[in-house]
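Entry 12.
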Amino acid sequence: MNTDWFIRFEEYLHGQMGREEKSVFEAELSSNEEMNAAFQVYRTIEAEMNLEIQQHERRDELSRSLDQLNGKYFSTGSRQSTRVVSLLSRQSIRALLAVAASLLVLLVVYALFFQSSRSPEYLAENYVDTHLRQLSQTMDASQDHLQLGISAYNEGDFDRALEHFQQVLKNAPDNYEAFKNIGLVYLMTGQYEMALQQFDELAEMENLYSNPGKFLKAVTLMRRNEATDKQEAKNLLEQVVREDASGRDQAEEWLKSF
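Predicted 3D structure (tokens):
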């Protein structure tokens, strides 16, 4: 996180920015989620800090009033003054609270970022971006539609990729690779129900050396992130680990975050 943000937060909250600088700052807040989260925390702390300063000033005012009453009605020699000595000036209190606010913002934003970075939805999205955006090309020249489908998929043309993969299944209904890739097309395009159905059927396929059906279904549920998806994904990941199925190492790592 950029520590210069605190200076800009302070300038913005105290009206020290020009009109153009203020517009730029507000636009950046709208587009930068991390910065916006830090600003909301800082603004809350700033409000609490101002309240504390006001209370401190009221205590000083009360102390002065007691001094006046004491001098008016009591002898200074016969009774000890009730004057309360302020140990900290307004400026020093503000400086100390500003330091505390900055540290608290850092801690809160770090906690928010860490929590979001370990959420199932984030983990799934990161896995998709890292492992599923590109498919490996097959070297089997006899499966033209499969190769064309993979090329289209890697180019982001998912409609054309789906057509090629479906054509492969027309010619070879048990083609595991095409079956899996159709599920991935649905996953990449947000058609989660179709993807889940595809991966369910993939998980039922037998005589495969390595079947990623359950693992990919868990990824889909984590990415969709609806009401019961997290628990269902957790159950599937546990099955993957128990059965030593495809995706076991990743599943075992993810389960630490559930």
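Annotation: The chain is about 75% helix and 0% strand. The chain has two domains: 5-116, 122-255.
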